[in-house]
Amino acid sequence: MGDLIYLDNGATSFPKPEEVYAYMDSFYRNNGVNPGRSGYDLSIETGNVIEDTRKIMSDYFNGKNHNRLIFSLNSTDALNLAISGLLEPGDHVITTSLEHNSVLRPLYHMSLNGIEVDHIPFNDQGFVNPDDFAAKIKTNTKLIVLNHASNVLGTVQPAEEIGQICKDNGVIFLIDASQTAGKIPIDIEKMNIDVVAFTGHKSLLGPVGIGGLYVKEGIVIKHTRAGGTGVKSAVKSHLEEYPYRLEYGTMNVVGVAGLYAGMKWLQKKGIDKIHKEEMALTEQFRDGLKEIDNIITYCQDDLTNHIGVISFNIKGLEPVNTGTILDGEYNIACRTGLQCAPMVHEQLGTDKLHGTVRMGFGPFNTKAHVATALKAVREIAETYV
């Protein structure tokens, strides 16, 4: 059957750079202890890696204070910390139908307890209109939450324009950078972003189990958890200062080390260069799909302001069946279904098909991988339809 062709990088990047594997292995063997909570060398050295990672991630987002960069389990965990810590009963929040369940579900549960939620739809090209947000703002609007890039459609949303609207109206702006962190520049000052949530296991090329938030100065997120921070242990309440304010217990120090190694690799290779290469593969795949009968693509006519994600279906086949054939007969790994973004599929009408087939391209994919995937899709479309 041949080697696996992995095209599910929208879910988790794989493989990681060899430098990430090597650094994590060495770190865990030599420094995998609690960071900076004791005076011995290993603890201090581990703490130094944590702080170096705070700095490298803060710099990536153009954050002014690296202590405002906090680590979490993933972007879902980070988004829950931010959303629950920013909103109170009676507040109004505006979000979109492009959101992942990491935003939709927390807001749904909060809507049962006095939070008002509006969802902005996207247009036929997969983009939201900033004017729609401005039109929805009310006196009690506290927060706008935006999926920076759709994990289904790959469309990068106009965050800077929406950020300006938030700034002009005194509304907090939170973006979900799960799909964009490590792919494209994110400047919280230029884009007027107040809080950014990210995960390490996608385009930042780190391991699973690590993510975080950057919280701009002046934004208050109340802590909704409490526990050990390793400092000021005699204080009865959870600490107010960052980063301890939103960090609880022993963190995933090996995950932080892997995130650090992933960022160093990205900086060495060049994030812009990697993104350009991924988009060339995306265009190759999109153009190839156009030459195959009975293929439907979604919001892929123009790849401007996109990341390397394409959703499609073969007419007459449910996406799960297409994915099973790609895996079983061609050893191609992709994602099928609703991709944890049900409102996208409701608007597209693909909920009736139980979703789409999604290909996500990463830094270790090649033109040959794309050609093989296109050949497989063509054969499936000719054989099963």
Mean pLDDT across every amino acid position: 95
Query: How would you write the strand order of the largest sheet?
Result: 2-8-7-6-5-3-4
CATH architecture type of the largest domain: 3-Layer(aba) Sandwich
How large, in whole angstroms, is the Cα Rg? 21 Å
User: Which parts are unreliable, with pLDDT below 50 for 5 consecutive residues or more?
Assistant: none
**Count of DSSP H/I helices:** 11
Q: What is the CATH superfamily label of the largest domain?
A: Type I PLP-dependent aspartate aminotransferase-like (Major domain)
Shape: globular
Level of helix content? 25-40%
What fold name stands as the CATH topology of the largest domain? Answer: Aspartate Aminotransferase, domain 2
- Total beta strand runs: 13
Distance between the first and last residues' Cα: 23 Å
How many separate domains?
2
Strand content: 5-15%
By CATH reckoning, the class of the largest domain would read Alpha Beta
Largest sheet: 7 strands, mixed
Provide the structure class: alpha/beta
Written overview of the protein:
The chain has 385 residues and is an alpha/beta fold. It folds into 2 domains: 5-16 and 270-384, Alpha-Beta Complex (Aspartate Aminotransferase, domain 1); 18-268, Type I PLP-dependent aspartate aminotransferase-like (Major domain) (Aspartate Aminotransferase, domain 2), CATH 3.40.640.10. 39% of the residues lie in helices and 15% in strands. The protein is built from 11 helices and 13 strands. A 7-stranded mixed sheet has the order 2-8-7-6-5-3-4, sandwiched between helices. A 4-stranded antiparallel sheet has the order 9-10-13-12, with helices on one face. It is globular and about 70 Å long.
